[in-house]
Design a protein that fits this description.
mainly alpha; single chain; Cytochrome Bc1 Complex, Chain D, domain 2; 135 residues; binds heme C
């Protein structure tokens, strides 16, 4: 009798914690770049040529998760347990170019680091310039 009650209680606890954890995993993560990334200067002016390069790279390497307009709604986003965030949001736009460059370069969890697959700094700055144009 007692053992049955304890077993039932443990089952309830297990189900509740599983629900709590799955809830946590769906929340958008708050990813803060380190302070020294904030002041990194963008050496590539946001000229048409740089933006065009950024667009090409974005279409090839980022669109599948971040979506064509940067809303975080690419086909791969639905299978991720974290949000890809929204490049058109006020919070995202409040970041400096340096913070965005840092995140593209270093990645985090499901967001790949692009330091090796897009090794040119100028190309990663071009991505920053292109992402800035998304509205
Ligand atoms: C496999 C899916 C995937 C691909 C491909 C991908 N990203 Fe991401 N990206 C993510 C996820 C997931 C996050 C959120 C990471 C977190 O906060 O844990 C993210 C976050 C970011 C952020 C930070 C957003 C913020 O709110 O500060 C930037 C910038 C970014 N990605 C740029 C890019 C660029 C540029 C590319 C292509 C070169 C790219 N990503 C390719 C999944 C992806």
């Amino acid at each position: 009798m007692k053992i049955q009650i304890i077993t039932r209680m443990l089952t309830v606890v297990a189900i509740c914690s599983a629900l709590a954890f799955s809830g946590l995993a769906q929340k958008p993560s708050k990813w803060v770049a380190p302070d020294n990334a904030k002041t990194l200067k963008n050496p590539s002016p946001a000229a048409a040529a740089s933006i065009a390069t950024g667009k090409e790279l974005y279409t090839k390497s980022c669109k599948s998760c971040h979506g064509i307009g940067g809303l975080g709604d690419g086909p791969k986003a639905s299978v991720l347990d974290v949000s890809c965030n929204d490049f058109t949001s006020k919070d995202f736009k409040a970041q400096t170019d340096g913070e965005i460059f840092y995140k593209i370069t270093n990645g985090k969890d499901k967001m790949p680091a692009f330091s090796k697959s897009i090794p040119s700094d100028a190309d990663r700055w071009a991505l920053v310039n292109y992402i800035r144009t998304l509205k």
